[in-house]
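To whoever is on call:

I kicked off a structure prediction for a single chain this morning and the downstream step that reads the tokens threw a length-mismatch warning. I double-checked the sequence; it's 181 residues and nothing unusual in it as far as I can see. Pasting both halves so you can look.
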Amino acid sequence: MPVREALMQLKNEGLLEGTSRGFVLRRFTPTDITQIFEIRLLLEPAAAAEACKNASLEAIARMKVAADASEAAHNDDDIVAYMAANSAFRSTWISQVPNQHLADMINRLAAHFEAVRLATLRNPTYRASSLESTQRITAAFLEHGPQKAIEGVQYNLRSSAASYYAVRGAYIEQTQAGRQP
């Protein structure tokens, strides 16, 4: 029974879809991705500002360590380490959001984007843009600058969307040209 309850919870969170034979991972359409980016642009900048105002020194130190690890992984072209450090960075700033319901919603929406992250962060150019976002957000927290945190998160989301659309466009072009992506 606990497994079924866990599967139902994942279904309720939009990560799984029910079928006549059980459950499958949900596939997000390009429209779904666009709409989730729009929601994230409404929620995350305001959340980052509040987190920046309320962040503990310990959390800011963990963010800095994760940002430095992101930079080292990017420089080493270590995609797995980059994604791990980037996740640690993101989860740390989100942990400082005083509204737990907002933080939970942001985490649920971000969970839908793992495939997008994997597709885009393999590319060094898009990973460099992600790193720049991390550095901007880190600087905002170090300076206790809520407006800069807003701008850093907006930059991150907009550049993430641009990276996704570029990767998707390249995939479509390769598919139409009859080449394997």
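Update from on-call: the warning came from a stale cache, not from the record. Cleared it. Sanity check on the structure: The mean pLDDT is 90.
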